[in-house]
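SAMPLE LOG
Freezer: B-3
Tube label: C17
Construct: single chain, 156 aa
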Amino acid sequence: MTPAILLLKKTRTPHEVHEYQHDASHSSFGLEAAEKMAVPAEQVFKTLVAEVDKSRLVVAILPVSSTLNLKKLAKAAGGKKAAMADAALVEKTTGYVLGGVSPLGQKKLLPTYLDASAANFEQIYVSAGRRGLEVALPPDALLALLKGRSDDLQNP
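STRUCTURE (predicted):
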């Protein structure tokens, strides 16, 4: 049981757990998840941690098939500039290893932004806290649990 799944159970949030055999040689954890679960890559969301204005960490959740627009994230977070956070800092702050960072059950609840495209789906897939483990849940339930906000985060 990962902290993400424990949180979903504790809050009685409707969800489905999906497990697959992770291939360490795959070039993209997120695209691997979409392929192995046979779901569109636009419906599988990755969790990225960025630093806004060199002072605060935020979480961006967006489809694995897209890239994060750091300017849009900074603007959504009320800042001027954003950069990807250092890997060691991400692992220390979230409690998860890269490639298995879940937006749920992190050590500290960070300001969270979910890409607006999530509204196109009844449920989206996010990491459940380790490589090879995903959880499907409604995007509005994810936002409610994380006290998050929806915004356009993708590069055009």
